[in-house]
Write a structure and sequence with these properties.
Largest sheet of chain B: 2 strands, parallel
Number of domains of chain A: 2
CATH superfamily of the largest domain in chain A: ACT domain
Helix content of chain B: 25-40%
Number of strands of chain A: 13
Distance between the termini of chain B: 62 Å
Structural class of chain B: alpha+beta
Shape of chain B: elongated
Helix content of chain A: 25-40%
Distance between the termini of chain A: 34 Å
Strand order of the largest sheet of chain B: 1-2
Structural class of chain A: alpha+beta
Strand content of chain B: 15-25%
Number of strands of chain B: 4
CATH topology of the largest domain in chain A: Alpha-Beta Plaits
Oligomer: heterodimer
Radius of gyration of chain A: 19 Å
Largest interface: A-B, 84 and 56 residues
Shape of chain A: globular
Number of helices of chain B: 3
Order of helices and strands of chain A: EHEEEHEEHEEHHHHHEEEEE
Radius of gyration of chain B: 20 Å
Number of helices of chain A: 8
Order of helices and strands of chain B: EEHEHEH
């Protein structure tokens, strides 16, 4: 593989977990995966079993039940960006439907590393996160405190698009609204996982930007509408009526589709954002508002 | 049954003690975003991991095990090139 592939527009990286219960069928599932990538028109540049240290995850055996794999890939033919993103989401959904593999991220811009364990163990579990060559412009970090769904590996965050701090008490309604617009919800997903999938579908299948999708899913509360110009008021009223205000909380979303980052408003929940420039001081922001970068 | 540890309050030794003030901070997830304008850096990832560690009390931690945590980073192309694993 030529190193320049990594800088190509067609390049993307997939991160997976395979449950250890499927250990005996690893080759079978990898063959299925290869076929799915080939069907989608993607060329696998390399398959690699990711390095992990399982002693970092604690004592509970269920926490150790995963094998981590990663693959850099490329589309065989040049494609427009929106087509590539649509294909990536379709691929992710197909993998979820047809295999027991759990895709952490399949993206042209970002990769996700997560553990079902404590935050002190993540760097130890994924040694490559400690490598000085592992660099990033935007990093979103999340610790899960499970509220209305049980704690499992799949529900650890961030997901494909976002990290979410909130408890969605209208979880059933959000799911039903999502299904009505054709969202394939994840198996046994948490409220935040469903939210991530709804946003992803709105962006990829309906052509909204991350900012627009966020405004649809998190429309301003009625009290805030009073202060907005009539034009915006009408738009948000329409969003509230058409989709409904069924998501709550604060979301930090890395726009895997355009390489941008957005922090969305959210009730009283907090998120920390740190912005630092090249050679400048570090700014620290803690806010409940909306930050578009 | 739990007793709050507060000034002037006598807490029986036989009960576990929870500090009310700190328990207020245990009620939701932790979310951090580190943005570096300009060249990407490893410090960005490192600072996020340190922040997550400091907010471990927001990860449902019981006996050193939390509900899960993770990071989303840019595709580390330089890392892939440097380790040669992505080059054949």
């Amino acid at each position: 593989m030529n190193a320049s592939w990594a800088d190509s527009q067609r390049f993307f990286v997939a991160h997976f977990f395979l449950p250890k219960t499927e250990k005996g069928r690893v080759h079978e599932w990898l063959a299925v995966l290869r076929r799915q990538f080939a069907d989608a028109g993607a060329r696998i540049l390399l398959e690699r079993r990711g390095k992990t240290r399982s002693d970092a995850l604690g004592k509970t055996p269920e926490r150790l039940s995963q094998n981590f794999g990663k693959s850099p890939l490329s589309w065989s033919n040049p494609l427009p960006k929106n087509v590539m993103d649509k294909k990536l989401l379709k691929l992710q959904l197909r993998i979820e439907r047809e295999t027991p593999l759990y895709p952490l991220s399949i993206s042209r811009h970002t990769v996700v590393y997560k553990v079902y364990g404590s935050p002190s163990g993540i760097a130890h579990y994924f040694p490559e996160l400690s490598d000085p060559d592992c660099v990033s412009r935007v990093t979103i970090g999340h610790c899960r405190y499970s509220t209305n769904t049980w704690s499992t590996f799949e529900r650890a965050q961030p997901f494909a698009l976002l990290g979410h701090n909130g408890e969605i008490n209208t979880i059933e309604k959000l799911r039903r609204e999502g299904q009505m617009i054709g969202v394939q919800l994840p198996r046994d997903g948490s409220d935040s996982q469903d939210l991530d999938r709804v946003l992803h579908t709105l962006i990829v299948d309906y052509g909204f930007t991350l900012a627009e999708a966020m405004e649809i899913v998190f429309p301003p509360v009625l009290e805030e509408l009073k202060w907005l110009p009539e034009e915006l008021r009408m738009m948000y009223r329409y969003y509230r009526a058409a989709f409904g205000p069924f998501a709550q909380g604060t979301s930090g979303a890395g726009d895997a589709l355009s390489g941008r980052m957005r922090l969305q408003r959210g009730c009283l929940r907090l998120a920390s954002v740190v912005v630092c420039g090249d050679g400048e001081g570090t700014g620290f922001y803690k806010r409940t508002g909306c930050l578009a970068l | 049954m739990f007793f709050a540890s507060q000034e002037g309050m006598v807490v029986p030794q036989c009960y576990p003690v929870i500090n009310l003030r700190s328990s207020e901070e245990h009620d939701s997830c932790a979310l951090i975003c580190n943005i570096r304008k300009g060249a990407p850096s490893h410090g960005n990832i490192k600072r996020t991991l340190q922040a997550l560690e400091k907010m471990g009390h927001r990860s449902g931690m019981v006996d050193g095990e939390g509900d899960g945590c993770g990071v989303m980073i840019d595709i580390p192309a330089a890392f892939g090139r440097a380790t040669c694993n992505w080059q054949i």
